[in-house]
């Protein structure tokens, strides 16, 4: 991908925008871009520099993203909307062509990485509520003030605030000799090797510390508990929504198929048209995943049915039968449903309502399960127009409930039982 039209190869210390920004280390990458931590010499702050692939269609997409991010930033001068801030943008010419670059505020790990580090067990409900509030504030602003649909809400696209100081760690600041591999996998190269080695060493140190502590306490410390405490105490649960690469104005939609599969709303699966409420569906899937560590829907195609059909079946098993009117209302409906509104190829559904699932599979207390399901179920209404708006969700009393510390610890301990036995190194290495 590091060829004409593709990614721009960056080395630590490379300068951008006439020397204003200096590359420090790679933060991540996506289908369209690589993202680097950079030092802004004008403001003396660290920023995230998103460098788009150079081919025309990628440049076009970046300009679209800049347009949307500019509207977001202009409408929110106090930067309080829980959406990533665009600071600057420019073009950079390299050996592979001209790359549109976006300068964004520097944020931390995604919620996906948080869940991974937490061994795919859920977060305590108090933390889930804090994160949900942030996402909803972001969605409410997008939907109501700007008329924008995100269309790709998921754990990966929600970033926590960074808790690291880039100046403190030599690997992160780029003071160590890290070189970007110019060819091949954007994830490859020396950077990863050096960081991986460092992480392995660090993981060994952590493991040694834990066994030391275990010995001193007569072996009663559970590794998972120790680990999860460490993770959760450290996080600032404020977060921001990122990745507006596929966002659209509600009145100017160009894509029929939107959203990442597992977070896709039924009206999109059925091609029945969509609006803001597709983000509400994805938000509910995200909230469930935060609280349980599992995806709400993970459809797989089979021999006799497609991924779409499995997806629709999973939705109905959790939420009840789809009203006939909705089921037969999309351009794809005829392929999947008969005229009674029953799936053609998946005839026997195993209903497992959300509150029961939370109790029976995830060991939620009856009270927690009931309250959480009451919050989530309306957001997962099959009829899009019946789903509450982000503004209405923000009014829901569930967001202001507070579990006692004891309840939260019980929750985490219960969820922790699911995956005991993973080594610390594996957790650390994701
Ligand atoms: P793409 O459009 O190519 O998918 P994204 O905007 O999703 O690009 O960014 C790719 C990755 O870069 C993200 O998953 C994240 O790890 C990292 N990243 C993006 N924006 C920031 C930011 N503002 N601060 C820190 N890391 C970021
Ligand atoms: Mg992305």
UniProtKB/TrEMBL annotation:
Q: Which keywords accompany this UniProt record?
A: ATP-binding, Kinase, Nucleotide-binding, Serine/threonine-protein kinase, Transferase
Q: Which domain of life is it from?
A: Eukaryota
Biological process GO annotation list?
regulation of mRNA processing; spliceosomal complex assembly
The GO terms describing molecular function are: ATP binding; protein serine/threonine kinase activity
Give its E.C. classification number.
2.7.11.1
Coiled-coil regions, chain positions:
none
- Keyword Protein biosynthesis tagged: no
The protein's matches in Gene3D superfamilies, at most eight in alphabetical order, are given as: Phosphorylase Kinase, domain 1, Transferase(Phosphotransferase) domain 1
Keyword Transferase among UniProt keywords: yes
Enzyme class, UniProt record, top EC level: transferase
Q: Which InterPro entries match?
A: Kinase-like_dom_sf (IPR011009), Prot_kinase_dom (IPR000719), Protein_kinase_ATP_BS (IPR017441), Ser/Thr_kinase_AS (IPR008271), SRPK (IPR051334)
The catalytic activity, as recorded, is:
L-seryl-[protein] + ATP = O-phospho-L-seryl-[protein] + ADP + H(+); L-threonyl-[protein] + ATP = O-phospho-L-threonyl-[protein] + ADP + H(+)
- UniProt similarity note: Belongs to the protein kinase superfamily.
* Name listed for the protein in its UniProt record: non-specific serine/threonine protein kinase
Which source organism?
A: Juglans regia
What gene name does this entry carry?
LOC109019783
